[in-house]
Amino acid sequence: MEFFRIIDTSTTEQQLRAALPLSNLEAFSTELILLDTPGEHEASIGGIWGEFTLQRTEIRGGLRFALLECPNALCWTVTTGYAPAPDGIVLHLTINRQNKAPQFVEEIEGVLEDMARCLQGLFGE
Question: CB of 67 within 8 A of CB of 96?
Fold first, then answer.
């Protein structure tokens, strides 16, 4: 399954990367919390689904975040400069399932909405 949010604000790939280190997790999600001091590429986090290792990877256009132990392979990207919104921020979240219980989908939508709100606050004009 995949989920999208478009944040209608202008930024650059470099600004995304600079503003979204793992040490600044609370600035781009109020749903996820750091459990200890993060490294540059990985952090122990907690959230509504339990505790995971969150991995941060630089990709073309921005960043990819992945919950390494997640049985649904949940990951999301935060990018700019490319379709479907080359002048905005694209938040794209995926899981490796075609169908999930409605409650789980609602939880994903809530996490995604929270991230979109936080990103709008960080980069909004």
Answer: no
The pLDDT tens digits for 35-54 are 999 999 999 999 999 999 99
86-102 per-position pLDDT tens digit: 999 999 999 999 988 99
Contact 54, 67 (CB under 8 A): yes
Inter-residue long-range contacts of 13-16, CB under 8 Å, 24+ positions, other chains counted: 13/60, 13/61, 13/62, 13/79, 13/80, 13/81, 15/123, 16/62, 16/63, 16/78, 16/79, 16/80, 16/89
What 8-state DSSP symbol labels residue 8? -
Q: Compute the distance between CA of residue 10 and CA of residue 124 in angstroms, rounded to an integer.
A: 8
Model-level pTM?
0.95
